[in-house]
Specification:
A four-stranded mixed sheet has the order 1-2-4-3. 28% of the residues are buried. The N terminus is likely disordered. Helix content is 41%, strand content 9%. The two termini are 23 Å apart.
């Protein structure tokens, strides 16, 4: 992903959302990069059980990389279908969200807010036994993606984020225009 993507800026995350945009490359506890993330409304409702939430925020790490990209959950091992030109960070023993430095340093706060909770949903899914890197299933048809997007779209709606922002937020470069329309329909975001 390219951090150049910059959806409309009319919406903002909660004022308590903080980003340590100047952390150096490398691995950091999630709450060192996003202090207080666990105390915000989505952090308190991402899972019904307090012990699960506490473990999620205590054990998840952020690996900040120089690559021109957004965020993803580091796989435990390289998925079989990964293109040769992509060399993902692999984290076999810990939950790690890989974040491009340009994304962390330059992207709008609302985009980072939605992205980090989206990725935290994926960590919970994987901890529950889900396969995040499911071969042969379109990105816009993976239940894991739909569930994570639903979680952040619900939060965006709570914040009164516009449909225009959500359309642009959901327009990721690895899906086609047709898949984008499918994703919008699935998530209840009106097309333009």
């Amino acid at each position: 992903m390219s951090p150049a993507k910059n959806p409309a800026r009319e919406a903002e995350p909660p004022t308590a959302f903080r980003i340590a945009r100047d952390v150096p490359l490398g691995r950091h506890p999630i709450l060192a990069v996003f202090p207080g993330l666990d105390k915000l409304p989505p952090g308190r409702k991402i899972h019904a059980e307090a012990k699960v939430r506490e473990r999620l925020f205590r054990t998840t790490e952020i690996e900040l990389v120089a690559a021109d990209m957004w965020m993803y959950v580091a796989p435990r091992e390289i998925p079989k279908f990964v293109r040769r030109e992509w060399k993902p960070v692999v984290s076999p023993d810990s939950n790690c969200i890989v974040v491009g430095a340009g994304h962390l340093r330059e992207s709008p706060a609302l985009t980072l807010y939605l992205d980090i909770y989206h990725e935290l949903c994926h960590i919970l899914q994987r901890d529950g036994g889900a396969e995040l890197w499911e071969a042969g299933v379109s990105y816009v048809e993976r239940w894991t993606e739909i569930e994570a997007y639903r979680f952040v779209i619900e939060e965006a709606r709570r914040l009164k984020v516009s449909d225009a922002y959500l359309r642009e937020y959901l327009e990721v470069e690895w899906i086609s225009a047709k898949e984008h329309r499918t994703l919008l329909t699935t998530l209840g975001v009106p097309a333009a």
